[in-house]
């Protein structure tokens, strides 16, 4: 196991929040020690959770089992795509000005206010892979089946993690958002009782090698500002000293600080499907509407469940790249897909 806390006297200015600055240094130390070696795992050992419904890895023993599969798969291949979605109890802070009139700094301040005061409910992660020729490796169950492209099959591994952080009786939330999640089949009493801490997800991503030094992963979300902010907050919580462990972590005070943390964790290979849509004539709306416009059928699970939404993001992303960016490549300086490293609204 890697050390969770280190001390580094070096000084790098990321704003006036000393706690954020200290965490940044701790992240750098963690990544310096992160192993880059691939595990020698045979194809027969791969595990897939694509079924009619996507089960949640919730209880600690089950989480440990799924974490083992997750780490084995993540370390086996060098060019993974990581599709992420989170579920959280709505937004409780609103701006008096219309969203489109807000500057990027004001939009980040609004995002920070919400993420600082909210607790996540669920995290969904879908992994896809490319071989040395940048073509998808065919493993597991077809994630793109029924998307209208009979000549192309996409293969993915999807996990859905219930989190215990949120208690509807104690923590701030938007009642209409909570009602929507419950109507989609999310049992909040069960996630509170049987879920795992969000810091476990942060630890899992560290151990898998999908983040930090040496990672070639490309992270994709749909309108992903809140998704990446929630993951970042869980990492900040993980690195807090013991005497502050019960104090909720807070995001960096500035957009530039947030961007620095995001690059440190996830690298520059971030794609937001909502940004890609700027180059796609006729595409508009949320994830479900965009999928309908592209004639992409949800492969598993239900809407407003993190695992299923991360999988649908995977399907939509590859469909968009096929239709609108055909022939362009991923990887290093040859990456020609636009809006790399940008999050919608920020």
From TrEMBL:
It comes from the Eukaryota. Its EC number is 3.1.13.4. It is found in: Cytoplasm; Nucleus. Pfam families: CAF1. GO terms for cellular component: CCR4-NOT complex; cytoplasm; nucleus. Belongs to the CAF1 family. This is poly(A)-specific ribonuclease.
């Amino acid at each position: 196991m890697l050390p969770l806390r280190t001390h580094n006297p070096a000084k790098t200015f990321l704003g006036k929040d000393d706690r954020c600055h200290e965490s940044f240094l701790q992240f750098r130390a963690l990544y310096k020690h992160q192993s880059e070696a691939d595990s020698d795992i045979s194809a027969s050992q791969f595990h897939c959770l694509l079924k009619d419904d996507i089960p949640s890895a919730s209880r600690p023993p089950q989480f440990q089992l799924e974490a083992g599969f997750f780490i084995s798969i993540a370390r086996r291949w060098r060019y993974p795509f990581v599709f992420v979605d989170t579920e959280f109890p709505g937004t409780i802070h609103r701006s008096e000005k219309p969203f489109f009139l807000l500057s990027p700094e004001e939009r980040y301040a609004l995002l920070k206010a919400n993420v600082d005061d909210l607790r996540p409910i669920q995290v969904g992660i879908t992994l896809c892979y490319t071989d040395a020729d940048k073509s998808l490796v065919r493993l597991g169950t077809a994630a793109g089946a029924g998307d209208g492209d009979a000549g192309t099959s996409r293969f993915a591994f999807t996990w859905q993690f219930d989190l215990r952080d949120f208690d509807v009786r104690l923590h701030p939330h938007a009642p209409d958002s909570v009602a929507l999640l419950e109507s989609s089949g999310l049992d909040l009493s069960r996630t509170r009782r049987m879920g795992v801490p969000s810091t476990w997800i942060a630890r899992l991503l560290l151990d898998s090698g999908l983040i930090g030094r040496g990672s070639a992963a490309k992270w994709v979300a749909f309108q992903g500002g809140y998704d990446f902010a929630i993951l970042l907050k869980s990492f900040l919580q993980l690195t807090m000293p013991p005497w502050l462990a019960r104090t909720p972590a807070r995001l960096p005070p500035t957009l530039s600080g947030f961007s620095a943390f995001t690059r440190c964790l996830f690298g520059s290979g971030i794609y937001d499907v909502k940004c890609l849509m700027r180059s796609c004539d006729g595409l508009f709306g949320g994830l479900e509407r965009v999928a309908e416009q592209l004639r992409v059928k949800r492969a598993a699970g239900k809407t407003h469940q993190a695992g299923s939404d991360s999988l649908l993001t995977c399907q939509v992303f590859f469909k968009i790249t096929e239709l609108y960016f055909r022939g362009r490549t991923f990887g290093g300086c040859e990456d020609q897909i636009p809006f790399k490293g940008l999050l919608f609204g920020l």
